[in-house]
Design goal:
Molybdenum Cofactor Biosythetic Enzyme, Chain A; 6 helices; 143 residues; six-stranded mixed β-sheet; alpha/beta; 8 strands
């Protein structure tokens, strides 16, 4: 059986200010593909919590999916935390930057938004249908 886990990242989810709909959605989509969602975790917007969850789950399942923390705000630290979990550096990705420039235009890409172009070294970009922030994949971890 092919297995997956999801890590929901966000203090707002734990505080009850935001409701997690992603676990149910992902579980349903994965089931359609014959993949069993066997674990879900909700963690704080803290690097140590994200790193621990990624490192605990990636050897235990076939796929790990994360949700949250890749936007332009100060608490969007998922990229850096996942990079640290893999021992990778983070740099601005040219294709990710081009996507953001196309979306925001020449005057709309401020420093905060430009942060969304930062991707761990060697990661593959993943299209993100719900946000302009590109996702990425490292091994079996999809962000």
């Amino acid at each position: 059986m092919t297995t997956a886990a999801v890590i929901i990242i966000g203090d707002e989810v734990l505080a009850g200010r935001t409701r997690d709909a992603n676990t149910a959605f992902l579980g349903g989509r994965l089931a359609e593909l014959g993949i069993a969602l066997v674990e879900g975790r909700v963690v704080r917007d803290r690097q140590d919590a994200i790193i621990e969850a990624v490192n605990a789950l990636r050897p235990a399942v076939d796929y790990v999916f994360t949700s949250g923390g890749i936007g332009p705000t100060h608490d969007d630290i998922t990229c850096d935390a996942v990079a640290l979990a893999f021992g990778l550096s983070v740099a601005e990705h040219p294709e990710a930057l081009a996507r953001l420039q196309d979306y925001y235009g020449p005057d709309g890409l401020n420093d905060a938004r430009r942060r969304m172009a930062r991707i761990p070294a060697g990661a593959a970009l993943v299209d993100n249908p719900v946000s302009v922030a590109p996702g990425f994949r490292i091994d079996n971890v999809f962000v």
